[in-house]
Write a structure and sequence with these properties.
By secondary structure, the chain is mainly α. The chain is about 75% helix and about 0% strand.
């Protein structure tokens, strides 16, 4: 319990101290006009209240990530708390705030516009293709998960629920952001926070040992290495490239730059806290990682773990809450992924999205691709998602470093986490069986070489410029 409380205090302190440090480096100025004020179009650029934006941003970046990812990461034992806490403070919070503030100061641009500015048109086009495919894949997968759950609960077949969910996706992608996302997401975000806090409260009252084994560093039952696997597994609870696609969406609704730290950095810290709770629940409820591993099974069914813990702690209401949480969190991840794909594609083609016909064409194209993906076997492709997600975070952090260097600011707040996650991605590239399948030591050397090479290229480019 003491370790959990200490980790919580570190997250709060990280927001208060390091978050303020990042804010000062970025030179947040309340007098700067925002895209919501200068480019309001009633569709994507819509002024909203900061409290509402915070809850939308939190739900957008969270989804199932800080729940499922944290539970799977808990297989490594309490060591996962270090990545959740330090990652949220020094990597995830910085990453999300850079993505949001750079977008704020560049007309609400998506990440693809940053890529064109700093890496050129050729890489920009390739990056756009990969990004749209990644976001569409997320939308497709997170449409299938709730459709299967709902088909098991009702007499409506999987295809029927998938059609209903994708119909909703189409509306959420097409309609102005304040019509569906702005109205319902704050409620869903608040529900996620409240339900998680309730589970934490029960954990405290039951007197369960939070972390039964504090003497073994790596407690993974199958001996999977902490570096790099744990840092790929726990993404949304510490650092996630997916967030770089979501922060610009909210940057288009912000009415004052002074809200950047609470909304972008603060939402990441809150997500880290949610991940901290679920990792702790996974370890404590099953009395260690061996029990948690048995509950997850060979398929890593984190949804079953969420359901069992919720039912045990909160009764039948908890069971229903768990199922609904998985359904709503999956859907809210999928629809914002598809909306972000539309925005990225529109930015690349410089297509005015105030025009409903153009918006309709873009939305239909994105949804058509997601529907196609829903009926093919994506299991092998999905295995690459965790790595691709952290690679996206890596790119965003290097973009942030270039932006800070260009402005004469302290670029090291972005360089250090970028260097670390580059080494993680490079090592995973070499080690993972689905990629190069090298020995762990060889893969780690490869990761270090790649990170050093990227750092060298960064300094060559910036110092030459």
């Amino acid at each position: 319990m003491t370790i959990f409380l200490l980790a919580t205090l570190l997250l709060i302190g990280g927001y208060a101290v390091y978050g303020l440090f990042v804010e000062k480096i970025l030179g947040i100025n309340p007098k700067n006009p925002t895209p919501a004020q200068t480019m309001a179009d009633g569709v994507d650029f819509v002024p909203m209240k900061p409290g509402k934006i915070f809850l939308i941003q939190f739900l957008n970046i969270a989804g199932l990530g800080p729940v499922f990812g944290a539970i799977l990461g808990a297989l490594y034992g309490p060591v996962c708390l270090f990545w959740i806490v330090l990652g949220s403070i020094f990597a995830g919070g910085v990453h999300d705030m850079l993505a949001g503030v750079i977008s704020l100061r560049n007309g609400g641009s998506t990440m693809t516009a940053f890529i064109q500015k700093y890496f050129g048109k050729a890489f920009h086009a390739l990056f756009l293709i990969l990004l749209v495919l990644l976001l569409t894949l997320v939308g497709s997968i997170f449409g299938q998960i709730p459709a299967r759950l709902l088909s098991n609960m009702t007499h409506i077949p999987f295809e029927g629920w998938l059609a209903i969910i994708f119909g909703y996706y189409f509306l959420a992608t097409l309609l102005p952001i304040d019509k569906i996302i702005g109205r319902f997401y704050p409620i869903f975000g608040a529900c996620l926070i409240i339900s998680t806090i309730l589970l934490l409260g029960v954990l405290f009252t039951k007197g369960i040992d939070f972390y039964p084994d504090l003497h073994t560093l790596n407690q993974h039952p199958k001996g999977k290495p902490i570096f790099p696997i744990m840092f790929i597994t726990i993404a949304c609870g510490a650092l996630s490239g997916f967030h770089a696609t979501q922060s610009p969406m909210m940057a288009r609704c912000l009415t004052n730059e002074k809200y950047s730290r609470p909304i972008f950095y603060g939402a990441m810290i809150l997500e880290g806290f949610i991940a901290l709770i679920w990792a702790t629940l996974g370890i404590a409820f099953y009395k260690g990682t061996a029990g948690l591993s048995a509950a997850l099974g060979e398929s890593g069914n984190a949804g079953a773990v969420v359901s069992e813990i919720s039912k045990s702690f909160l009764g039948n209401f908890g069971g229903l809450l768990a199922i609904l949480s998985v359904i709503f969190l999956a859907i809210t991840t999928g629809d914002t992924a598809l909306r972000s794909a539309r925005l990225s594609l529109a930015d690349f083609l410089k297509a005015d999205q105030k025009n409903i016909l153009k918006r309709l064409i873009f939305s239909a194209a994105i949804l058509g691709l997601a529907t196609f993906m829903a009926f093919i076997n994506l299991n092998k492709i999905w295995l690459y998602f965790g790595w691709a997600n952290q690679l996206l975070a890596c790119i965003m952090l290097w973009v942030g470093a270039l932006y800070l260097h260009e402005k004469g600011k302290n670029e090291w707040i972005a360089i250090l986490p970028a260097l670390f996650i580059t080494a993680v991605c490079g090592t995973y590239l070499g080690y993972a069986p689905i990629l190069f399948n090298l020995s762990l030591n060889t893969a780690r050397i490869l990761g270090i070489i790649i990170a050093a090479g990227v750092l060298g290229l960064y300094f060559y480019r910036t110092r030459k410029a």
